[in-house]
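ok so heres the complex, two chains, lmk if somethin looks off
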Amino acid sequence: MKNQSKQLFNLLLAAMAVFVLVLSSCGKASQGTTSGALSGNAASKVYVAPGQHDEFYAFMSGGFSGQIAAYGLPSGRLLKVIPTFSVDPEKGYGFNEETKPLLNTSHGFIPWDDAHHPALSQTNGETDGRWIFINGNNTPRLARIDLTTFETAEILEIPNSGGNHSSPYLTQNTEYVVAGTRFSVPIPQKDVAISSYAENFKGALSFVKVEPTTGRMNIEFQVLMPSHGWTFFTSYNSEMKNSLLEVNASQNDKDFVAAVNWKKAEEYLKAGKAKDFPANYMHNVYSDETHSATSTAMKSVKVLIPSECPGLVYLLPTPKSPHGVDVDPTGEYIVCSGKLSADITAHSFPKMLKAIENKEFDGDISGVPIIKFESVLGGTVKEPGLGPLHTEFDGKGNAYTSFFISSEIVKWKVGTWEVIDRQPTYYSIGHLMVPGGNSMKPEGKYVVALNKITKDRYLPTGPELTQSAQLYSIDGDKMELLLDFPTIGEPHYAQGISAEKIKPKSKQFYKLSENKHPYVTPTEKDAKVVREGNNVHVYMTMIRSHFNPDNIEGIRVGDKVYFHVTNLEQDYDVPHGFAVMGATNAELLIMPGQTETLLWEPKKEGVYPMYCTDFCSALHQEMQGYVRVSPAGSATALRWWLGDEKPVQ
Amino acid sequence: MKALPKILFFIAAAMLLTLFVFPMWQITLIAPQYPTGVTMYIWVNKITGSEEGTLQNINILNHYVGMKYIEPDAIPELKYFPIVVIVMALLGMTLAFTGRWKWWMGWLILGVIGCGLGLYDFYLWEYDYGHNLSPTAPIKIPGMAYQPPLIGNKVLLNFLAKSWPHIGGWFIGGTFILGAVAIWLQKRNTSNT
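and the predicted structre for the whole thing:
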């Protein structure tokens, strides 16, 4: 019955923005140095011997770094920073011609974003290791990362959104990735007084359909939340204020959590209830065959309006600024943390269905029914701490809730609502993560605290300090702190998954025979230089340990030189790099079988060195060459060669 | 069971055809950076590797010390050995029906000689690859040759080279043993009658 109703209704609930309430860790710093002592065997529990692999992958968002990083657990070792929303000169991401389209938006090329919530794809409610999705907060976008390559495969801009924060949320079989919005904005955008918020501003929930085999995303429909509104999917601003939110948005006793029935939405969509709204957003897709991304402008979106679609959305009253909304693995309880409440409220899913059936409503907002608080309340964890934010589950009937203000993790029992244990975090935990802890099948061995502040925990590095994660064992009744480790940017939220779900599928290199890049140079015999007016295309190969060609003459000042460099290697872990003096972009870092393009516009005549940047072999240092640049209009012949070969022209 | 030696001899001759199903020989190179090793398979008609890019990878390694590129198209044996093997197999299978052990013996001796010549040829190729080094090699070590062992293990600079028969090679051994057994049985049958 539980599962059935879950399938029937498929609640979608969202967590909220971390608004920095400047309720920092005052008074906590002194505690930090005194507690957090480790028991004797903690080190052995996180020790992964040289050459051994970690048991879990942890994917932590980089927050304001705009990236996502993969770590091993329990060791906390950083494995890879995956460039996603921010350019990365180290990998040429956003600098080479192939990846530039990925960062294209309706506002133009954007080299940065703020990435908060990674979400692993799921099958039957269990993480499956195919893809990980993550939101771009500032210029609303969703990214999909392919976990066979650990590369960004797709970025979809979200229209009618301001601050794609409460996002992404996945349905059980990754049918949809759902994106909420942090800021309400006029929809469609227009020039209005900011004080007309209540009348003009709206928030859209975007339902992004995921193609099951390719993973390709497409905005199937949006749900436009009531016009005099709340800002959010999980509303914490039912006061409808637009300024000084830290005070004004905190006055009501209860705000709302919105429950959306996406199956119903599909019915309305089929019945033609959706309206076509003009929109302007970009859909960017990277191909592992052409090794290039394309960017497509999208012009409209289908919108459902809840007041015209009864049964689509219900509001669940929840005490004070609900922040995190988390469904327990059985699907019975919806745990809502009122960020400014002293309690944790758990709504009951079966009770909610019943209340809907019996119409136990307490009024409505623009036609969206508000379910009576008493009718939906499943239980309350009484005064567990201060500032509850997010909850994860271990699959053994326990829940773990982070408390930002009191800077701790509290373990409590689902159903009996009793607090079992509490452990301090250092400091000011935001999200927390149990591998699979937001799915139906948690792998409840560890909980990771994702902290906002480190203060004195590490060697000081000037005013800007590292942020960090903390690993706790949750095998026993008591949580045990095992390890602190620094992270990139802000580890806002994370996902964990058993390494075995990803490791066997990890790609070793790209097959050269499958390279469909328009400027591929499949063998050294095909290397050439082609002039088309002021554009010069260099078809170059790289293999241990030379470029072909490695000497080029006949380039002129004012030319746009495109180095299309193909790595001919077909072996594991043999990337080559490419750099040329005076390039105003970055290097190329090219995996075996891949082609990448660097645009180079020499400004002055001379002879310019180029070389391999990724230490590739015993003769890496010798992997280099020269490009001769002559004055504009000069008659220097276009010639190229390798070694003693006769120059080709 | 008068037919048994004939059946055995027929099987022995037919077993030669397994050379088209399995490699004859394998050479594996192992070094710290190649924890799983790089394996080259030598067939009667082609050279392959444990992966699609293996031959290229071995050639890249070899070029540092000036060894020639291994290009299967440039090795004529890969073209005429298959014909020799097919002719021998068909001849042997035909001779099986005659039941004349002396002819069988002749076939077997021919096979052993052919096999010996094949191994000698293999050795010559290995010698050529290992000793005929480019004077412009990036890494030159006086007195060093890179000939892999004909059979067995040998350390070549940072690599351990292992050279052993593969399934096809063991089958050839099987051909000789089974052939010899068939001859012995047939000879006994003949002298008893």
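quick notes: Chain B touches chain A through nine residues (CB under 8 Å). thats all i got rn
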